[in-house]
Design goal:
Number of strands: 10
Radius of gyration: 16 Å
Largest sheet: 8 strands, mixed
Order of helices and strands: EEHEHHHEEHEHEEEE
Length: 185
């Protein structure tokens, strides 16, 4: 059975994007990206909202020859995984191994977890909020960057409380901290 993991790169004040939608500050250093890739290798399926999908489709067509090894590595991980995009507005999806769902159905995600040999990840705070509210998230992986953005798109939804147990932590030379939590049942 697969676990559903919410993974996010956040500012110290808990945002995944600033108030203008910018997230250049969130770009991982090469060592952080390599570590993130090692975590992503365990993912069999990405659950994505429309905006997150729009940001990620670049990995299907990015010219990789002149890119750093960590980027080439991630592109391979992305291409090998299944993707489910939840959107009521997209007419179609353009990437391989991708299907479009109109609505987030907690019962269907539960079945997907139960039938999966690999873990799943939920991308984007909006879709993660629905997964948290449905009690589907098993683990949180946060990469906390040493920056305050002063407001913007928050990593976690308001009105959802869950207990977390710290499973692992790691500090990187650039000041980024990786925190891995199990969600209490």
């Amino acid at each position: 059975m697969g676990r559903l993991i919410y993974s996010a790169i956040t500012s110290l004040d808990g945002c995944v994007a600033d108030e203008h939608g910018g997230y250049d500050w969130a770009a991982p250093s090469e060592p952080v990206h390599a570590f993130l890739n090692d975590l992503e290798r365990e993912i069999g399926t990405y659950l994505l909202g429309r905006r997150t999908y729009a940001e990620m489709i670049v990995w299907d067509a990015l010219p990789l020859a002149d890119q750093p090894r960590v980027m080439r590595d991630f592109a391979g991980i992305w291409l090998a995984a299944d993707k489910v995009v939840y959107s009521g507005t997209l007419e179609s999806v353009s990437t391989g191994r991708t299907r479009l769902e109109r609505d987030f159905d907690p019962a269907e995600v539960r079945r997907l977890k139960e039938s999966s040999a690999a873990d799943l990840t939920v991308g984007g705070p909006g879709l993660a909020a629905a997964a948290f509210r449905a009690g589907l998230v098993d683990e949180c992986q946060l990469f906390v960057k040493p920056v305050l953005v002063g407001g913007g798109l928050r990593a976690f939804p308001d009105g959802v409380g869950v207990g977390l147990d710290l499973r692992a932590q790691r500090r990187f030379e650039d000041g980024t901290v990786h925190l891995r939590y199990d969600v209490r049942s």
